[in-house]
Amino acid sequence: MLLTELRKGDRGTIRRIDADPELKHRLHSFGIIPGETLEVKGCSLARQTMEIDVDGTLIALRKEEAEKIDVEKEEHSALIKGE
Fold this sequence. Notes:
This protein is an alpha+beta fold. The chain is 16% helix and 37% strand. The protein has a single domain, classed as Ferrous iron transport protein A (FeoA) (SH3 type barrels, Roll), CATH 2.30.30.90.
């Protein structure tokens, strides 16, 4: 699934980055690399930008950049008491 399909609060593991070498290098410099876990912290109203947390670093991405990142969504396996 693409990073843009995740919602605020969702977590996922980066599987692949399908970008040109320049963008891939820039993303790697922020710690956005395959195998790394991320969390979506927020999205703009029109979902044109999104903010993610990768290893404690907050990163803002344009929709066009986020669409190039393939992730595996983490399913919430822990049950909340009382539900």
